[in-house]
Amino acid sequence: MSTMAPDQVLGLERHPFPVTPDANSYFLPRGREAALAELAHCIEARRGILLVTGEIGLGKTTLLRRLLADFDPDTLEYALIFNTFLRGGELLQAICSDFGLDAGDSVSDNLERLNHFLIDRAEAGRTCLLVLDDAQNLDAESLEMIRLLSNLETDQHKLLQILLCGQPELDDRLSAPNLRQLSSRIVYRLDLEPLSRAELSDYVRFRLDAAGSAGRIGISASALRCLWQCSKGNPRRIHLLLDRCLYALIGAAQQHISVAMVRQAAGELEMVSGHHAWRAPALSFAAAAVLSSALVFGLDPQRETASQTDTVPAPVVKPLDSEWLAGLEETSATDTTPPCLDELLERHGEAVGLYPQPPALDGDDGSEHLCRFEKADRHWLAVEPVPGVGDRGHVREVQRLLFELGLLDADGVDGWFGPITRSAVEAFQQQSGLPTHGRPDALTSGLLQALARHEARKSDETHSGG
Q: Within a domain: residue 442?
């Protein structure tokens, strides 16, 4: 057996799917380039605290490396802290040390020492950035230290730019009442999302080309489908699976990754293939009536029995898989796929989200972002995936809809996702019975579209009737 690395055996310039973060060949999914530009702008403009969140394996550390690599080292100095289990004064010592300062045991002395350093750098035209990775581990004492550091400023700008990067629970922690002051100072939030099915295909080919494949290493369409089902678009899982597939290519003396190779890799890594429905919190919308518990498929019906007639059962939220669509096409002629669903599927494939349609949302809203349709006498709402809050166009559209619904002032429609917009999104989610996390995700954005058009129709009817 060869002891050479798979990339060498396959004639590649380097490993296309390393298990460690690789910012040298950085793939930019939809909205990511704009998000990176916004992060860089906020740092250069010295606006203060930035927040990047995402599940494990979505590429937070890789994004940080790419972001830092884009800066001129003559204009930016940064301290990168990975040990976020440090508490209060210990964290301050680590920050000072990473900036090259001699840190003592006194918190006040270290703050003064750091303040003088930052003032000197600002006068020299240099920006100082503090990056805290795995920031979800920071305790209350350390987060209070971050707040104190954010107070270091001149009359014009912040002396220290702070980038907090962590898992989604960091966002939840910052929503706690005792951390409102810190949370209110966050000027930009980026929530990383998994790759869509279309993005995954582009990602795999991008990584192979960047490694010098030149088309020699291929992957079948069925293998890509299986890869997406097993990885759920998580880049770390994608790399783990395809790393094993490269070894399978060598063992089989082939140059085309098959679905069998992906399935074997998934079995070895205990990643389950297939589509899964999952439960979401109960959905109410305006004065929506009770959703029948029969509006469930893909789950054991005995798990969906409603105990009270005035309780809205939890909806099913799942991607539209090919097996379900095939079943749809086999139904009666009056229950076929509507054109709006065909258009969504053509643009986004199985990344389209599916939800039971609240009864209050009847009729056609004319939106290209969602589709209402009926299957087997049941009403459904399909919504397109949306970019993260780093996409200013998406944020501006959400703000416009919030303004139309009276949840945001006109001057808040600026394309920046800050505390005011987040509070407005939370208010809408709370009123609509959605999870109140403040992020304009696919369901939130889809319902905003639907309700805004519903209210507009009501207004038009009122005026025309008067």
A: yes
Three-state secondary structure call for residue 130: strand
Query: Which segments within 192-321 are labelled E, that is strand?
Result: 218-219, 256-257, 278-279, 316-319
Domain count, the chain: 4
Both tokens of residue 29? 């999914």
What confidence tens digit (pLDDT) does each residue in 85-102 have? 888 899 999 999 999 999
Q: What is the pLDDT of residue 296?
A: 29
> Does some domain include residue 125?
yes
Could you tell me the pLDDT band of residue 110, with boundaries at 50, 70 and 90? very high
Q: Where does the pLDDT of residue 155 fall: very low under 50, low under 70, confident under 90, or very high at 90 and above?
A: confident
How sure is the predictor about 385, in pLDDT bands with cuts at 50, 70 and 90?
confident
User: Token pair for residue 132?
Assistant: 């805290």
Q: Number of helices (H) and strands (E), helices first, in the chain?
A: 17, 12
Which secondary-structure segment (H or E) carries 197?
helix 197-210
**Cβ neighbours, 10 Å, residue 93:** 17
Domain assignment present for residue 321? The answer is yes
CA-closest candidate to residue 49, choices 192, 201, 159: 159
Q: Which long-range contacts (CB under 8 A, 24 or more apart) does 423-426 make?
A: 424/399, 425/398
19 occurs within a structural domain: no
Higher pLDDT, 280 or 382: 382
> For residues 317 and 415, what is the distance between their CA atoms, to the nearest angstrom?
28
